[in-house]
Amino acid sequence: MTEFLLRRFVKNYENVADRAVRSACGNLACIVGILCNVLLFAGKFTVGVLFGSVSITADAVNNLSDASSNVVSLVGFKLGSKPADKEHPYGHARYEYLAGLAVSVMILVIGIELGKESLAKIITPTAVEFSWLSAAVLVASILVKLWMSSFNHQVGKLIHSDTLMATAADSRNDVISTAAVLAASLVAHFTAFDRLDGIMGLLVALFILYSGIGLVRDTLDPILGAAPDPEQVAYIKEKALSYPDVLGVHDMMIHDYGPGNRLVSFHLEMPAEGDVMAMHDEVDCMEKDFFANDGLTVTIHFDPVVTSDPHVAELRELVETTAHQADPEVNIHDLRIVPGPTHTNVIFDCAVPPRYFEKDGAAGRELLNKLREAVKQKWPDHFCVIQLEQAYADLSEASGH
């Protein structure tokens, strides 16, 4: 069904690197969500009011909040697809994140209101009239939500949308909450326990609040500048290392300006003895490759590395081994030596996670001392000049140098 809808309403739906296609896929998912959730709300609200069930009414309002969320997401996709302009040279894709945050806040507000109503029903219980019609509506809702979860998950995975993946998770949660309401209706019917309806409504409200808090956290992360996806970091590094003259990758930064709009920068280590023009051409080809095939705007800095001096290679191996034994997340780069009449300076950069700058930098000083001592023990006349810097992407898990 998912493939049929995409084929029917989105031209060239598989070409998600095209922002227009990606936006169309997102719009389709939102419109399908609005239609399904409005129908579910109408059915549940009707039977909830007819038979006096606050838990079914609460579940209905939850579906209405989902429909509202879909509307906000639709607006987010529409605004996010606007092209870059003079005032916003990096585009408008972050509107999708803002839409997700608005949806999350709406869910929290609805959860609070439903919780208050359910508490009142627990304190002053009223009889709930059971109907097989209401049970049938709840069963139908479970089936529809199961399909919606699968649909949003597939489309979200196709276009790499955190908003749709969150919507898929929310639909899956709705299956659980609606199943709980159905169970409560059946138990209340056969046991005449009037407070169970209010208790179940409260549990649904708490579940909505829990989901809302999780969604707020997830949507805030990219806005605040969360760490890049380790899989994407590994992919970028492996692809760069696949080029023949590349010896290493470091100082990677990934700037997230919204789904499908990421700017990447990193340094490449290449042989200092090589043909500069040929390596420059290789870097240009790499940047075009990332943009054409991965939709990434990449800026690359070329660092020359001496490969013909065996002493430099020996020093690099010792320093890297010492660093990785101390902490696998530490990376060494830009190593070079400056010989002198009385001593030799070993100059290199040491990229470390943010925690090394906490607590007055004690961890950083300890690491630097280990590196200096390791070099000094083997070459007493060598002195390390080390620049400690923060790593913005963890390259330790990626294969290669």
Automatic annotation (TrEMBL):
Domain (Cation efflux protein transmembrane) ranges: 31-221
Key word Transport present: yes
Cation efflux protein cytoplasmic domain span: 228-304
UniProt KW Acyltransferase keyword: no
Membrane topology: Multi-pass membrane protein
Similarity annotation: Belongs to the cation diffusion facilitator (CDF) transporter (TC 2.A.4) family.
Record keywords: Membrane, Transmembrane, Transmembrane helix, Transport
Name recorded for this polypeptide: Cation transporter
InterPro entries reported in the protein's UniProt record: Cation_efflux, Cation_efflux_CTD, Cation_efflux_CTD_sf, Cation_efflux_TM, Cation_efflux_TMD_sf, CDF_Transporter
Organism: Gemmiger gallinarum
